[in-house]
């Protein structure tokens, strides 16, 4: 058995040594063997006294850091034109849930989608709710204009599956308020606010204090159309508090020219609506060089030069793939989950 090393102990078989009778052992005696011990204790006593005389120094607490939310991480990704492709779910993940519903947003979060686009408008009693159309006819079991109904009246209705319509099954989902939806998505996913109704400036104006109170401004995006909305840039305070997106339509100047004239607004992406792919291709490199992303919208063929989600379900390479080749790195889509699988298979986006 190993024995710990240390000073040698007297053998139990050795006789004890007698101390000379002439030596009177004292702690601070003059015998050489005691002199070092005495000096060490004196030094220790002096050090202890000096230390006690010094004032106590406060210990600075260790710095604490707030964990980064997924939404904050996605904002950084959106700001990186060389990052992986990103997916924006048009009105939420509504293939297996109603559009603009809590269920559709929860599904997007669960499946790892990057952003949801949602439509916001006020009720008769001034509450911001989520609804794309001016009326509730298509998406619910009711009829009438949103602006003519109170929140209590709207909450009695039930949302229809997917995009709705008279033949679409009813669900247990109700029309959510903007606040209810943001509470579900807080810190988890980016949200693109699309103002609807007859008074868009009212939606932007009333959204700001709500989002500010909830502490979710950092995960919001808002877009304005180049040319048409330029006069609003200094009139909408919300734009200064969120991630700005510059919308461009192909009826105006070339995309490269719009990038030059609107880069002062520091958009994270140029959301391009085009009738022909060359318009998009011409400016995609300029968009990337400016530090922004090129955003395509294949949820409807008319918004992406005829390339669409519907056709992509039959031939994804000829549609989503063609937009990728043209320089698109953000997709507004009605098929977010299928697109996620496709992009992961192409090595363009991690599959969550």
Automatic annotation (TrEMBL):
<feature type="domain" description="GP-PDE">
    <location>
        <begin position="85"/>
        <end position="343"/>
    </location>
</feature>
<dbReference type="GO" id="GO:0070291">
    <property type="term" value="P:N-acylethanolamine metabolic process"/>
</dbReference>
<dbReference type="GO" id="GO:0006644">
    <property type="term" value="P:phospholipid metabolic process"/>
</dbReference>
<dbReference type="InterPro" id="IPR030395">
    <property type="entry name" value="GP_PDE_dom"/>
</dbReference>
<protein>
    <submittedName>
        <fullName>Glycerophosphodiester phosphodiesterase family protein</fullName>
    </submittedName>
</protein>
<dbReference type="GO" id="GO:0005886">
    <property type="term" value="C:plasma membrane"/>
</dbReference>
<dbReference type="GO" id="GO:0006580">
    <property type="term" value="P:ethanolamine metabolic process"/>
</dbReference>
<dbReference type="InterPro" id="IPR017946">
    <property type="entry name" value="PLC-like_Pdiesterase_TIM-brl"/>
</dbReference>
<dbReference type="GO" id="GO:0008889">
    <property type="term" value="F:glycerophosphodiester phosphodiesterase activity"/>
</dbReference>
<dbReference type="Pfam" id="PF03009">
    <property type="entry name" value="GDPD"/>
</dbReference>
């Amino acid at each position: 058995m190993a024995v710990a090393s240390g000073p040698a102990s007297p053998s139990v078989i050795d006789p004890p040594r007698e101390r000379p009778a002439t030596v009177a052992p004292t702690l601070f005696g003059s015998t050489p063997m005691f002199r070092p011990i005495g000096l060490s204790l004196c030094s220790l006593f002096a050090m202890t006294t000096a230390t006690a005389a010094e004032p106590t120094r406060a210990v600075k607490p260790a710095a604490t850091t707030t964990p980064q939310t997924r939404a904050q991480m996605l904002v950084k990704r959106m700001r990186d034109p060389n990052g992986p492709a990103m997916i924006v779910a048009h009105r939420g993940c509504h293939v297996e849930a109603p559009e603009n519903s809590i269920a559709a947003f929860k599904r997007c979060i669960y499946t790892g989608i990057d952003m949801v686009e949602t439509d916001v408008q006020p009720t008769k009693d001034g509450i911001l709710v989520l609804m794309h159309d001016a009326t509730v006819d298509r998406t619910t079991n009711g009829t009438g204009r949103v602006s003519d109904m109170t929140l209590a009246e709207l909450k009695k209705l039930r949302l229809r599956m997917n995009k709705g319509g008279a033949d679409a099954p009813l669900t247990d989902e109700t029309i959510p308020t903007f606040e209810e939806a943001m509470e579900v998505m807080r810190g988890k996913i980016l949200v693109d606010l699309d103002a609807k109704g007859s008074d868009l400036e009212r939606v932007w104006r009333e959204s700001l204090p709500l989002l500010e109170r909830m502490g979710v401004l950092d995960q919001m995006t808002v877009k304005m159309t180049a040319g048409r909305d330029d006069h609003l840039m200094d009139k909408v305070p919300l734009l200064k508090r969120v991630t700005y997106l510059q919308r461009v339509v192909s009826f105006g100047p070339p995309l490269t020219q719009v990038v030059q004239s609107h880069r002062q607004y520091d958009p994270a992406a140029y959301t391009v609506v085009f009738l022909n792919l060359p318009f998009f291709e011409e400016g995609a490199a300029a968009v990337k060089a400016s530090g922004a992303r090129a955003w395509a919208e294949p949820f409807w063929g008319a918004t992406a030069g005829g390339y669409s989600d519907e056709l992509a379900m039959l031939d994804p390479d000829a549609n989503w793939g063609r937009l990728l080749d043209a320089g698109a790195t953000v997709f507004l889509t009605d098929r977010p989950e299928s697109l996620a699988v496709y992009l992961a298979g192409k090595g363009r986006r991690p599959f969550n």
